[in-house]
């Protein structure tokens, strides 16, 4: 069944888009919630008349989403939770907790459904969490769970030092293997 969307629906499209959906989905969900109307000749004619207004609203939404992305991207928020031995949390950090932390610490109101956490965070440390702002516009926020910003920076520096040490060790092993291969070939 073809319908005209009256607002953004994740995975389907935005305002003014004509999409094909199952009849039950349209009649039981989209129509009662006034998220879409049937794509009849009359509605399509009205849509053509409203295209200019829809385009202006879409530009505003995109501009707002890009401004929000600029404000959010790379920001750090801290979620205070009880941490047990070896960095394992008592409980977990959910998308709602991340959204509340963003609102409290950055003053930006984000719907918890827009926080794309996937699985709840159950380990202390710094975690990069994507936030879907509008259609394909996403920002990434660093969530510090059970640690301070200084501890997270020290942890990242230690990881870099460990990776560098592993790379040097790997180079030394390769050099030894090459030398042995050269000696064996002679």
TrEMBL record:
Gene3D superfamilies membership: Ribosomal protein L9, C-terminal domain, Ribosomal protein L9, N-terminal domain
Keywords of this entry: Coiled coil, Ribonucleoprotein, Ribosomal protein, RNA-binding, rRNA-binding
GO molecular function, one term: structural constituent of ribosome
Chain ranges of the Ribosomal protein L9 domain: 13-40
A Pfam match: Ribosomal_L9_N
Coiled coil: 37-75
GO biological process, one term: translation
Function: Binds to the 23S rRNA.
Family: Belongs to the bacterial ribosomal protein bL9 family.
UniProt name for this protein: Large ribosomal subunit protein bL9
Source organism per UniProt: [Collinsella] massiliensis
């Amino acid at each position: 069944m073809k319908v005209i969307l009256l607002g953004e629906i994740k995975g389907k499209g935005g305002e003014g888009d004509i999409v094909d959906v199952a009849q039950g989905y349209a009649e039981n969900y989209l129509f009662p919630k006034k998220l879409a109307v049937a794509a009849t000749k009359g509605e399509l004619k009205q849509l053509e008349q409203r295209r200019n207004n829809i385009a202006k609203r879409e530009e505003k939404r995109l501009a707002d989403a890009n401004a929000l992305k600029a404000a959010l991207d790379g920001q750090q928020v801290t979620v205070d939770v009880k941490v047990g031995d070896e960095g394992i949390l008592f409980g977990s950090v959910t998308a709602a907790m991340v959204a509340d932390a963003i609102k409290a610490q950055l003053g930006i109101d984000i719907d918890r459904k827009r926080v794309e956490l996937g699985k709840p965070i159950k380990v202390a440390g710094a975690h990069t969490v994507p936030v879907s702002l509008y259609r394909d516009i996403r920002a990434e926020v660093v969530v510090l769970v059970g640690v301070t910003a200084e501890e997270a920076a020290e942890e990242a520096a230690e990881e870099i030092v460990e990776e560098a040490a592993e790379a040097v060790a790997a180079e030394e092993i390769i050099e030894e293997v090459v030398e042995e291969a050269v000696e064996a070939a002679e």
